[in-house]
Amino acid sequence: MSLPLASLYRQLPRRSLQSNVAIQQLHRHAPHSATLRKPVAWQRRAGIATAEKPINNGAHATESASSSMPPLDIMKSTVTSGHKRIVLPHPSLPAYKVASRVLPTNIAESFTVLYACIRSHDMDRATRVMVELYKNKPEEMKIFADNHIYNTFLEGFVEASPKPLTSQCLTWFDQMRKHNLTPDADTYAIVTRGFMKAAGFQTARAILQEMKKDTNFTMEQVLRSPYLKDGDEQLFLKLIEENRSNASRGVTEMLGELETATKSVFNIEPTEQALEASHVIADALSQVPEARSTNSTGVKFLQEHLATLEQSKKSGVTDPYELQLRIEERAYEVALEKLNYEKQETLARGDKLGAMNLSPLKRIMWNWHQRLTPLIAEEVQRCEKSNESDRRVYGPFLKLLPAEKLSVITILELMRLHGSSGVADGMKTARALIDVGRAVEMEWNAVLMKDRQSQQSRARNQETHALFSSGKLFNMALRRERMRLSNQTEASASVLTTTDGETVTALDSGEWNPVWPSATRAKVGSVLTSLLIEAATIPTPSVNPETGNKITEMIPAFFHTYQYVRGKRVGIIKFSPNLTEMLSKEPVRDTLHPRLLPMLVPPRPWLTWNSGGYLSTKSICMRIKDSPEQVLYLKRASEESYLDRVLTGLDVLGATRWKVNRPVFDVILQAWNSGDAIADIPPVSEGNLPLPEKPENYATDPKAKLDWIKKVKELQNTERNHHSLRCDVNYKVETARAFLDTPMYFPHNMDFRGRAYPIPPTLNHLGNDLCRGLLQFDVAKPLGTSGYRWLKIHLANLHGYDKHSFTERENYVMENLDHIFDSADNPLNGSRWWLQSEDPWQCLAACYEVSAAVRSGDPENFKSRLPIHQDGTCNGLQHYAALGGDLAGAQAVNLAPSDRPADVYTGVAEMVNKLVDLEAAEGNPDAVILQGKISRKIVKQTVMTNVYGVTFVGARQQIENRLKERSDIPSDQVYHLAGYLAKKVFASLGEMFNGARQIQDWLTDSARRIAKSIPEETIKAMDANIGEGFKADAHSELDQTAMEYTIEKIYATANKKKSFSARNPGANQMTSVVWTTPLGLPIVQPYRRVGKRQVSTLLQTVFIEDPDASCPVNAHKQSTAFPPNFIHSLDATHMLMSAVACQTAGLAFASVHDSYWTHAADVDTMNKVIRDQFIELHKQPIMESLRTEFIERYQGYKVPVSREVPRAIKATKKSAKQEAEKLLSPEKAHEEVLSMGFATEDVVRKELEDMKKSENNELAAIFGTVNDEDDADDENDEDPDAASAAATRGKKFTHSWEDLTFMPLPAKGEFDIQQVKESDYFFH
Q1: How confident is residue 646, by pLDDT bands cut at 50, 70 and 90?
Q2: How many of the other CB atoms lie within 10 Å of CB of 75?
Q3: For bias kind Acidic residues, which ranges apply (predicted)?
């Protein structure tokens, strides 16, 4: 039986090759894949192609880059969602991992150990690991080992100390072909360099001669290898001189070519294109008052890192690009150097007893560092001499960084994690260990990138950055050429993917740098954490029991124990009570990673999926966690240039230049230093709040005990939240202070749905009201007549007067000018009119802007920097109404034109009030209490989040929070009444947005069908004759190797599983919902039921996700999350389209999802843009294209169908198709949607039952009656189908596989999308 599995390999898109690129051996990762193992190396060391170089479409870069802000042609292509789709092999097939180059965990762990041994110069151990891999894993090495890994191994011999191990290097070089690898230009460069370093110039010359004889590589290709270092040109010149006496004609020609290439490559004049810096940074920071400190350790380290700005300026570094690199490259060194400096300063003053004039916590942490550093150094020495298995695993990684840096990383990471994961005064052990290991890995990668970047590669990056900074890279002809070059470099890199879902290559040059698997991170983090627990002590006041004198004892600062979290027994690292008390005064929970700051220059452009963001770190454009399938789709889409428009949109967002709003900053600083509660700044804590009194029946009544414990928890949470919020504000104030005189940029990436987010977490425009109030555009534009009007409307909106016509809003501002002037002149001591706003800091910023404009005497010529917001009306419902042509829904969310803005929240509140009035008239006691009390505010959050999948429990909590704010509702009735109202809100929404409900039902039903389906190949793969079918389709040695590996894995997998059938599909149900957005972004829903893997560490046995375990999808989450995720993807598509179109029109643009920002003068232009792009998006047959894509993508997939057999009848007469439709009907799917807002009574009842079970588990955990589950993660959502198993007992069923089909789309309504053009309040 011949199976078409090989065709799945051939579905992988092929990369076309340039004619001048030498074709070398193919990657051994998938049959029929045309990806090169190693294209020519010139791409990676060569300078950027000149402007005259022809590009793909026949134009020249110089022709398109003539203007400073050239127009974008990216939006000229039609926006469709019906083509450019990527289909990869199904994850249930072992062929998926082979074809997609996904490393098995055991190979990934061995590779990282090999890599660490090489980088730590332990080549004896590295050689043993390499030998063992080729001996014990020959098939895997054929598939996954490539030239990048082998070249790094050879380089290890060359970099050996005190001299290169040339003999071993040459031996392994000669064995390459034995291992089915062909030397490339980099290989010859490495081996030649090794012999030149050892003064073996004759041997080096012979190696180059062999290359000339046996290959087509040129000397220039060798000299442009990234494995060569700055200064190596002297070695080549000496090689030429040492061999000039050789009279052989071949040698003379080779030396002549080498000399010419050496002069060409190493004597390149610096690029003439100067870096076009946006601004010259001020020579010194302005004299700004210091912010009252929380004494937070995290804030202190942030301050120390930000001091790099001032120190660098004083040292003469004023080039923004170089300054940005310096800030990124110096991370933990700043903290370490600052501590050392302050220690020496204190000792110089003679303060030898106190050691350091620091806060108590900082002094203690310094003592920990002093004790921990030698312990780490001793452990490294033990690892070198020990044969213990664990030390052999983690030892090489400890040698990558100095002990001093490892110590600082460990201390900072553990302190940062305090109070995380729902653990009071501690953290989960598993998370702590993995995070410490990940922090070590991140620091190593930063050091490596800094060390490996040559002068030429840095100059090349600067040139690309200069093009982006000047706006020339937004010319799509030039941009596509740069993307083509980046993709060629990417193709030359051996990008493997681990089963953790992370990519292996992390260097711009494409050199091998494997991601550390979670087990490796856990082991490295374990040894460092255990050493810290041993070293860290804290002074504790005590009393001598014999003398009664007061003494100070040193007790452990941390200890390891177990604790119940959400009813499950979890290993935790606990902070001692004394350390916890100290932290209550100096919270460090939110320690900022020092690299994640705003940038001084525009970010690196996203030319490929993993080539943008910060200058010195490699990152990918999408935030992905535990989803290797998403990584593979994203990478393939980038290679095929499907992501052009998405990546350009991210670049537009990152190119917006920001500035701190100085007047608002001054007020925030004054308010902060006062210690009072102002706006969202909490007050300074006055000590621990008193606990409530215990009830008299505390010891006898479990319910009374639970109620008291909940009150105590609420009190403690309030106290901790105040500390955390003040610390958060402190971070924002310190960051803003450092950037007062400096423009800044926010690099962006996106989540898996395509929604864009700034990468810097502390200060950005997606932050809270305080963040947004602090930020303004760096570029100012005259208001003009239109801009002055929009500025006034903006202030009215912020002050809550946003449900009136635009004219009424303008009048509102003019009527309140006295209040506005007072707010600007006396913000803290006046009437505080601005504090009446829900967004007070943004309102204050607008007050300053309006006041300045009016007082200028000529408002229309006033240059304004304030971003003006245009917000969609419940944007998710706008997309639903457009998709369904829902006229009533369109009118409710301002898609249709009207004289005044429609308010969907008010509309829902009115419908709920009508329902309540009717039931109150019938005597319903709940309705009687709530009659006349249902306001817009109560229902707003639930309506807003409904379209994005809020659960009934979540909606009840939202409404409960609002009801608690009312004094006229009994507190003991709030919880019950919130549930009553949630049902009414859902019912009203279902009635108002009937078209949206039908589309939502179709999306849910389709996702449920997909999640239950299995490809036909998987079913046939369980046939005993599969091997013959695979062999019949193998046409080459590469095919045969991969096929044999696939067959072996299938048999191994099949033997471990239970019988596979339609009755028991089991772990093979691994089909994720995958779709392509209208901009070509492939989206994979990541919801799977992950398996656990036990990892023994020094602290405890921890359970981490097992990437190699079969991971069936969570069918329930796949179906319930698809509608909101799909709408999010459309929302993101509209935003990115609008961003690119605004850039084309010359507008500054920023967004907070469905809130779009620009200068006041440009609001009218932006309004036209966002309407045009919304129409352009929804003119396309989005739903039809989605259904077509599903049919094409899941062609040949089967779903298991079960039919009950009547007792007196052996077989049913209904068709299989009818039964399948019955089984997967939209009504049934709708009943099982627990997460959707349009919920039925059955759904609500089911959620309440689940909630009750959760509360019972919590009660049981408090009294210690829960079964132990060591280090368990949060509970997974259960598939509702599992609950029906008991109901089927005693009945007989037939089970079969049927074709996967999809329901017809619901009929579209009569709303005309073109009406959006005439709607003044579409965005307002």
Answers
A1: very high
A2: 20
A3: 1267-1281
